[in-house]
Amino acid sequence: MMDSLILRTGVRLLLPLMLLFSVFILWRGHNEPGGGFVGGLICAVGFALHALAFGVKAMRDMLKVDPRSILGTGLLIGILPGFLGAFSGEPYMTAQWLGALGTPVLFDIGVYLVVVGAILAMVQTLMAEGDE
Amino acid sequence: MILTAILAIILAAAIAPTLNRVLPALSHWLLALVPLSAALWFATQIPGVTAGTPVLETTSWAPSLGIALSFRLDGLSLLFALLICGIGAFIVIYSGGYLRGHPREGRFHLFILAFMAAMLGLVTADDLISLFVFWELTSITSFMLIGFNHEDARSRRSGIQALLVTGGGGMALLAGLVLMGMASGEWTLSAIATSGADLRTHALYPTMLVLLLLAAFTKSAQVPFHFWLPNAMDAPTPVSAYLHSATMVKAGVYLLARLNPTLGGTEPWFWALTIAGGVTALWGSAMALRSTDLKKILAYTTLMALGVLVLLIGIGSDGALKAFAGFLLAHSLYKGALFMGAGSVDHGSGTREVGELGGLWGKMPVTGLFIAVAALSMAGLPPLLGFVAKELIYDEVLRSGHYLALAALLLANAAMVAAAATMFFKPFLGSATKAAEHAHEGGPALLAGPGILACLSLLFGLWVGLPQGLLGAAADAVRGAPLDLELHLWHGFTPALGLSALTVAVGLGIYAGLPGVKNALTGIQQVTRIDHDRAWDCLLALLDRLARWITGWLQDGMLHRYLAWIFTGILVLLGATLAVRGGLVWPGISLEIEDALGGSLALLMLGGTVGAIRARSRMEAILSLAITGMSVALFFLLFGAPDVGITQLMVETLSAIILVLIMAKLPMLPPGSDRTGAAKLFHATLALGLGGVVSAIMLAVLDQPLALDLSRFFGDTSLLEAHGRNIVNVILVDFRGFDTLGEITVVASAGLGVFALLRARMGKRGRS
């Protein structure tokens, strides 16, 4: 944890913006530069900065869930929709579309969550070890 | 339907632990229904298959690699499939009774059903790659079964031994199958079987043969790879019963039988199989006579049976293959019954030592009856199936004039008579011992399996016409051409019958003088002084030491030395490839600095690099590197790759944060070793070399004409087929989504890996 007023104030202002921006980047990724991977990275950077400024416990309190659960959820969201095509006899991970909503979007959300979960799991473990 | 059967058994395996929790008293009966129905389905295929039309099934698996899940049910596969599912069903029932109340009963059923599915896949697979996959699955699942009592160090050791020996054979199998596929150009067994003559004269034939024989001999425990089989006895009895009667160890025999039309009939094949088979048969019988543990006796008689089966395939004449099919069935039936019976004796009386058993007939009459019937079949006495099979063997070996083999078989069979007598007379009819006092009969679950298998031994013996069609079809499949098989219980006063009588006489003689025989055999063993188990332990210890030595040398605990190894490896591999492939050409691009912004970014990168090199503290180095990284990100943003740019920016930020977190905790480097002039020179050379090679590759790549057809393809189809205008993202989540799935799995493992590693370290520190 870094006891720095500039960092703390900056993070307080930046984090909501970064989270919003990361979701925006995730959403627009299909048509404009962006996507789940970058979005996840932005979100993770936001939380990592928060952890740097306020300590890992504050970050975990704000996150409410264990990063590893985020990671697992993301992996499941990435894997499961791929089976939807099987109902119409198509190979695994053939994209299924319902209007603007399709399995690739779900998959992208899965990527986003995996990236967030994995990075925050690392950050949290690394920082927690320092605390002791 | 074959695939369905396999999947159904896997499904049963998956639900077994839960089912066992919910219905502990009933789960084994319910689970057994699955292999039983599979067996019934296979039974309905008998008429078609015996008429000469095998069942074929193909499901695409990895079409781009030409690998399919193809299955083929001919006589040989069908015989095996019936044994696997039929005996398997009774084993499941039996194990429910045997392990009643065991805390891991559900897990046991999970393992044994998974093993069953693997075995079924192995004998029905037509595709070479699926054959290999199922083969390895049997090794892995049997490892879990043999090591089931994992608190016991002996069980663990035996499990590992079985896994290493049979798994090592599996590696040879893969190599052999690939060679076979390359040599014939075909990747299914049925297609390869038609090109047998070409294969046998192919230049790769000797290599192929050695590899495949290695696989079959390790799996089927032929001398000198036999030592794991008796140790595998540490598994719970139902496992031994299954492994020895119908599965696992017969997988090697199956492979040899399956390959006989393709690779068989040559001189090397004949000698390798007859010698290995004959020696194994003799060794197994000798060891069976020496043993005093019921299970050990049975394990060594399995060695004898496997040896005989291999010997028969090696001889390979029509008669030998008929005898092979007959003996395969006879052995599976009586061995399954005897093993389960021996387990019941152990279960009821608390011991398996022949010396401590006696007078069980009064307490366990039903078990005793079943054991008696099965033992008669093992001894090869009429009117049981074992007799029919033995007559076929004698008849053929006598006719073909392999007198050495005949002598070996005679001795081995006589030993079987003695072993069969040992199994029954003393434990059941001998004077009552302490073990007999509290002995009790097993429940229906314990009696069903041995009862039915013993009855089948008798039924098939009395009514040999019943299994005749299937056995004929199996022999056809091993022969690769039709032959006709006619079985008779009574075939007149023939020389074979005389040999049978002689066998029984010698066998009873051996039984009468068993203590003397044991002493003599001990003498032989002392003379030869081969202790395979000790040799095995030495081998493993040696391997262990070697591994530790290499590890200590490569990984001495200093991070910078790990990195030096890694980077040296990359440098050598990349550099060598570049040099060998002639990639070291000066590209035809000119270095003009047209763009002031690009030029200043390049300078910034250089500055960051110099800063990192000159840095006095770690923090300084990290920040300098971040300057370089950020400049690269700006490059991407400027030159039209915004996706890559943003990603690079975020990755740079994150790596700076994570590096700061890590570096803050690393201890200061000790002065000395890596600070000397020589070490610095080495690091500088390594860094410059690696940088130079990577730059050379980049320049060489730039020199290549840019292939635009891929970009054009993605540009044209991304909106139409994937409903997205951002090609980069569409490729990531749709066109190559499967790759991305792999990548995020790696990301996830990395996150969990960091967590697990650091947690383990913290835990250790907390305890100390």
Largest sheet of chain A: 2 strands, antiparallel
Based on CA atoms alone, the radius of gyration of chain A comes out at 17 Å
Counting helices, strands and paired strands, the structural category of chain B is mainly alpha
* DSSP E strands of chain A, number: 2
Mean pLDDT of chain A: 86
**Would you report the number of β strands of chain B?**
2
Number of helices of chain A: 5
Mean pLDDT of chain B: 87
Proportion of residues in extended strands of chain A: under 5%
Radius of gyration of chain B: 33 Å
Question: What is the strand content of chain B?
Answer: under 5%
Order of helices and strands of chain A: HHHHEEH
Which class do the helix and strand fractions of chain A yield?
Answer: mainly alpha
The main β sheet of chain B shows up as: 2 strands, antiparallel
Runs of chain A in which pLDDT lies below 50 for 5 or more consecutive residues are none
pLDDT < 50 stretches of chain B: none
Ends of chain A: how far apart? 12 Å
Helix content of chain B: over 70%
Helix proportion of residues of chain A, in percent? over 70%
Q: Spatial order of the strands in the main sheet of chain A?
A: 1-2
Provide a brief overview of the structure.
The complex is a heterodimer of chains A (132) and B (768). With 132 residues, chain A is mainly alpha-helical.
Q: What report would you give on this structure?
A:
Chain A is mainly alpha-helical and 132 residues long. Chain A is 70% helix and 3% strand. Chain A contains five helices and two strands. In chain A, strands 1-2 form a two-stranded antiparallel sheet. In chain A, β1 (97-98) and β2 form a beta hairpin. In chain A, α1 (5-28) runs antiparallel to α2, α2 (36-54) packs across α3 (56-63) and α2 packs parallel to α5 (103-131). The longest helix of chain A is centred in the last third of the chain and has 29 residues, at 103-131. The model of chain A has no long low-confidence stretch (mean pLDDT 86). Chain B has 768 residues and is an all-alpha fold. Helix content of chain B is 76%, strand content 2%. Chain B has 33 helices and two strands. Chain B has helices at residues 2-22, 27-44, 46-50, 75-98, 105-124, 128-146, 153-184, 189-193, 196-200, 205-219, 228-231, 237-245, 249-263, 267-290, 294-315, 318-349, 365-379, 385-400, 403-429, 434-437, 444-462, 465-479, 495-512, 514-528, 532-554, 559-580, 596-614, 618-638, 642-663, 677-703, 709-722, 727-735, 737-767; strands at 55-62, 67-73. Chain B has a two-stranded antiparallel sheet. The mean pLDDT of chain B is 87.
